[in-house]
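pls design
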């Protein structure tokens, strides 16, 4: 029975039940191991579409804190996109159901957090420093999931570090300047490795892309061809 149910049955605080169990383990010399449903540690089948999407979110706007008594995965979402916040939380729960998930509102954004030191098992790209300052490469099992669910991975990347915008230009038609508008997707990330993961996956699903420089830095991946934008619209669409 969970501690909460035992506490309610006996009419004592839940912390008291936890202390009793702690003392019992100490007297028996048993080391406590928190229960986990980590797919990498238990062999449980992972929800691949949810993982591919969460991987994209992590590579864009996520990080892992992993140190003594503090282990959690955080994904930062623009507070404007409430559907994106819901999708991030749903993906975390689908990938691992046992860890608790919470939201923390910050200025202009929402931090979606899931508490478990097993997130480092699922995201071996975790490491010290900023992601764009170290090598980022997928392990074979991660690449297999991305290959099986490329659109879920691209959706995670776009929902984190991408956008769908309306560009415009002017053309002379019959001596008259006319304005034309057209939709365009961008993915912007400082990491050469993460941008390559994005462009490689776009190529595999038949999306044509180009790289636009911000100053002298080629941080922007652009999708502007009509057929490719239509393909992106069918599978991604604007943030919500």
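designed seq:
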């Amino acid at each position: 029975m969970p501690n909460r149910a035992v506490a309610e049955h006996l009419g004592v605080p839940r912390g008291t039940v936890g202390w009793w169990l702690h003392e019992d383990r100490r007297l028996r010399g048993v080391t406590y191991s928190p229960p986990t449903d980590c797919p990498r540690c238990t062999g449980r089948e992972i929800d691949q579409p949810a993982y591919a999407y969460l991987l994209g979110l992590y590579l864009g706007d996520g990080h892992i804190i992993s140190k003594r008594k503090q282990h959690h995965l955080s994904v930062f979402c623009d507070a404007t996109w409430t559907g994106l916040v819901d999708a991030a939380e749903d993906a975390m729960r689908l990938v691992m159901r046992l860890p608790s998930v919470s939201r923390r509102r910050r200025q202009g954004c929402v931090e979606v957090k899931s508490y478990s030191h097993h997130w480092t098992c699922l995201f071996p790209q975790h490491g010290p420093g900023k992601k764009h300052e170290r090598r980022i490469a997928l392990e074979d099992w991660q690449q297999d999931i991305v290959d099986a669910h490329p659109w879920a991975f691209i959706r995670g990347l776009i929902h984190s570090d991408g956008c769908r915008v309306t560009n415009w230009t002017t053309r002379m038609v019959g001596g008259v300047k006319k304005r034309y508008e057209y939709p365009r997707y961008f993915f912007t990330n400082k990491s050469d490795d993460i941008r390559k993961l994005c462009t490689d996956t776009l190529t595999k699903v038949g999306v044509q892309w180009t790289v636009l420089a911000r100053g002298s830095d080629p941080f922007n991946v652009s999708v502007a061809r009509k057929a490719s934008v239509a393909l992106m619209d069918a599978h991604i669409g604007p943030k919500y």
